[in-house]
Amino acid sequence: MAVKSKWIINCFDISVAYLHSKLDEEIYVSAPIEFRPEWTGKVTKLNKAMYGLKQEGQFWWLHFQSIMLKLNFIAEELDQLIYCCTKGETIIYLWMNVDDGVIFSNDQEAVSKLRIQLTEDFKVKWEDKLTRIVEINFKQEDNKLVLSQTDFARQIIQHFERKSNSPLLQTLSVLPETKLQTSQGIPIEQKWYQSIIGSLYYLVLGTRADLS
Length: 212
Known about the structure:
This protein is α+β, with helices and mostly antiparallel strands. Helices cover 29% and strands 25% of the residues. A hairpin with a 6-residue loop joins strand 4 and strand 5.
């Protein structure tokens, strides 16, 4: 819809997102004695969130929501990943997934202003067009946006081929035309199997629902 309407599309990445988060509870961790040996046996109180906390995702999301509210953006009821801000004829949508985001708007000046505002609170890397985000490649063709996860699929294959030290694909046939056969090979480890299924599930959620 944004492409067909010729809206401005920008994407961005927030560096070390979780480290920006404020805490709404007291959290103590073991002191970093590798750097301060005199702190042996002591604990330290965190002033901000850090990677490794069980609540890191929640703290970050609440912090980002507070920034959006400050900028007059409201989260959509049906999808909390989408924020919207309207003023007169100007419309801005912001989609956010952890630390990756996309902005859609019919007003270039409003987009430029939002970029400045977000940079005041975060360290942000910007791109003026949407090419790749959350392992999905985007290519604009006329009035449409083509989505592909070919690169990500290749990464999955290469990663597990390195771990197994053998090729995973025995044929170049395209699914679902390929007739699947039961393999009598050596069973793989449970964790490895779960990792493979998890990677394939990410493809299913993105662009390859046919794999389900």
